[in-house]
Amino acid sequence: xxxxxTPDLSDRIERSIHIQAPRSRVWRALSDAEEFGxxxxxDLQGQRFAPGRRASGPITxxxxxxxxxxxTVERVxxxxxxxxxxxxxxxxxxxxxxxxxxxxxxxTLEEVPGGTLLRVAESGFDEVPPERRFEAFRMNSRxxxxxxxxxxxxxxx
Length: 157
Prior knowledge:
By secondary structure, the chain is α+β, with helices and mostly antiparallel strands. It is built from three helices and seven strands. It has a single domain (3-156), classed as Alpha-D-Glucose-1,6-Bisphosphate, Chain A, domain 4 (2-Layer Sandwich), CATH 3.30.530.20.
C-alpha cells in the first residue's frame, strides 16, 4: 500500500511503497523505458532513459490517448535514483506548455527487509502557472497513488 506525505501542500507530492521484490527488479521496471511504459501506461517502444535525453510517447489509457508522456531525464544512478523533468498534468492539446517551468520527479530505491522501498517525489508545483497549479497538483497526487500501485503489481506479478 502506498503512503502519502505532503510536507508542503502546494509544492511537493511524496509517495512511498514497499514492493516485495529485489531492488534490481524494481530498478529494471523503472529504468528500462519500454518496461516502464508498460506499467505506467505510455508507449515508449524503442526509447531509453539516459541523462539529458528526452523520452516521449502517447499515453495508452483510454481517455488520455491524446496526451503525450514527455520527460527529459536528469539523473540515472543505477538501483538508487532516477529523475526527470516534465510538465505536470499537461493534458489539454490546445495549450503550449513549453514556456512553463517543469516539475522534478525523483524515484529513489532502498533495500528493506522483504524487498524494496520505492519513493517518488514530485516538486516544483509552485512554479506551475496559478490558473492550473491546483488541478495539476490534485491530479498528479491521485496519479502517483495509482502509479505506485501499478509498479507494485507489475513487479510482484
